[in-house]
Here is the input.
Amino acid sequence: MVDDGQKPSVHKDFHGALSFGLAFVESQYGEEGMAEFLESLADSVYAPLVRDIRAGGLAALEEYWRKVFEWEEGDVDIALEDGVLTLAVNRCPAIAHMKEYGYAIAPHFCEHTRIVNEAICRAAGYAASVEYDQDAGRCTQTFRRAEA
Amino acid sequence: MISCTDFIWVYSELFKFLEARGGEAKVIEFWRGISDEFLTNLREYVAEDGLKGMFRYWSHTLGEEGGRHHMTLYDDMFVIDMHDCPSAKKIFRDGRVEPYPKYCEHCRWLYPPLLEEFGYEVDYHVLDCEKGACRLTVRKPPGVMTPDDKAQ
Here is the structure.
């Protein structure tokens, strides 16, 4: 999706800005408004990723996540086995950066992972789930083909 | 996790969402919130070191974000000449999302009000939004106390 052979600019303060933005949306429009905004990203920002998953399946999504966590220098174990892609995030780079630099972490920050993953997968014919511990900065994300 | 490498597009989409829900006033309210509540690190740099603090702050952020620019630090003035803004490039030239037309306005609401609180005169001019060209000029007015006086 973003593979032009070059590492993109990595400015991790943007995690703090996203957190501030999500908290603002929730304060104005509630969790429902936050979810509506995040779900819409599957049709805009993540439309290229949706296309890649439709064309290349979970292998395309695995490739995407490997690059993201390499750029972000996150601690993650990624496995694609028996039609299930699993990300065991041992140290979330977003949470780690915000803690290190004292940025406020939105109360439902990690919900964005669930909502965006589900929206992307829904658009591509797949299903996603996540279990997270926001305070610890850990989560397990799974992806599989949606049941017909 | 939304990667920080995707953030600029998400940011632009957020502006569009807020404008659709609450009009331009809601977008500006959000930008003012960022200036007042989020940019604590810039505020600390300026409070501690005045114009030199601005130079240090933007050396870090613009260094990480990429793009092409020139910063000039005088004894009484700090200038950023942005020739090729990395954010504007993503928004207006990558074609990944429909651009928020007033995207570049966020800098006008984020930075000048914050810097003016410290006694500076600030001009922000967008020269060409789609080409990512703008100029931020911060002047220490004669006879006005600013953090530079403490830092000397």
In short: The mean pLDDT of chain A is 94. The helical segments of chain A are 13-40, 47-72, 93-101, 111-124.
